[in-house]
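Record type: ASSEMBLY
Status: queued
Input:
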Amino acid sequence: MMTKSVNNSTEIARHNLLGMTQSRLTDFLLSIGEKSFRAKQIMKWIHHCGVDDFSLMTDLSKALREKLMAMAEIRPPEIVSQQDSNDGTRKWVLRVTSGSCVEAVYIPEKGRGTLCVSSQVGCSLDCSFCSTGKQGFQRDLTASEIIGQVWLAVKSFDGFKAHQKVDKKNGQIINADKPKVTNVVMMGMGEPLLNFDNVVDGMNLMMDDLAYGLSKRRVTLSTSGVVPMLDKLGAVSDCSLAISLHAPNDELRSQLVPINKKYPIAMLLESSLRYINGLSDNKRVITIEYTLIDKVNDSLPLAHELVALLRDVPCKINLIPFNPFPLSDYQRPSNNRVKAFQRVLNEAGFIAPVRTTRGDDIDAACGQLVGQVADRTKRKQRYLSNQNSNEEQSVRIVNGLQ
Ligand code: SF4
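Status: finished
Output:
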């Protein structure tokens, strides 16, 4: 949990307390000769009050405050930009310690506000319909960088618990209609299960009453199918689960989601069922994410195949019309094709809402997040040079040079 920060040109190694769960913070405090109960006080200052300055933590002794100032910090990612969409969606570009940037998106809806959080700088997987995958991969985010996205979003809406004003007469929260983070989806940049420990710590903080106290139904991890880690998840978390499925058979899914070659659909569904059946409440369902790509996976026979595949899986199916981005040749299907696909699912008894595209005027829609990735894999370079050579080829054909 050691991070580095620059202070008067001198690099000082500090412990970032922002991403520490209660048990990690307790261990840290004990390791510096402090009492364990201090962990609760510090967590409330950070996550209930939004305080990132130890000198303001007035119920800690002056000596402890000074000790923490010397060796620790509360440091979220740095906001590079904030963009607001016409539909109320807000996107942040956030610089993390390595200098790369990730993105987080807030989507307001009637009665709730969902924050889409990134787990990695880029992504090591390369799903063919996803802009993040084309950026390559640099590294995993730390737990501080993951929960830091929630901290910054809550701060931007002045939504910290300690700042909420309650009407003394009726007990209601004043300004309850202000934007609020009520739900978090681990669905931004990266595959969360490939950054297991930090994502689990981040999600546990989201659900901890000493931090954001979100219900386990309102914190969702979305995976493309890292089956061995999904099998481990049940032992450490009871968050909700979403599966990036996108195809009803292995042949097509392996083209769209390459990790399917290693962990095919049957393995993924079995593991997902084990997870969901192991939860303490038995009413939860798996969210199936299905990006509809024109004439690739949106035909009626495929809709029927999906029905047959999911017949015995307690699930709801989110249909997401593909959101185009520059490095992709895929197209968004027509509304008629989307509705026809949806009708097949609905007639078979599935809840299958079509997800409205949100924030596409600020490139914040599903599958469009790019950040700025210092790519270790050279994947983006390869995509760009392929694209350039395809464009040159087209120009040669148009000019009759071939
Ligand atoms: S869909 Fe998810 S797992 Fe696939 S490339 Fe994009 S970020 Fe990575």
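Annotation: Residues 123, 125-127, 130, 132-133, 189-191, 224, 244 surround iron/sulfur cluster (CB under 6 Å).
Annotation: Residues 379-398 form the longest helix (20 residues).
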